[in-house]
Amino acid sequence: MSSATQAPSPKVRPPEERAARRFAPPPLALFLGTRLLRGVLVMFLLSIIAFGLVHMLPGNSVDLLAGPYSTPETRAQLTRDLGLDGPLIEQYTHWLGNVLRGDFGISVFNGQPVRTLIADRLPNTLELAIAATIVSIAWGVPFGAIAAMKRGRFFDRVARSATFLGLATPVFAFGVALVLFASMVMPSWPTLGWAPFTADPARNVQALILPALALGLPLGSTICRYMRASMLEVYEQDYMRTALATGATRLQATVRHGLRNASGPVVTIAGLQLAGMVGQSILIENVFAIPGIGQLTVTSILQKDYAAAQACILLLGGVFVVMNLVVDLFYPLINPKVGGLR
Question: In this prediction, what percent of the chain has a pLDDT beyond 70?
Answer without folding.
Answer: 83
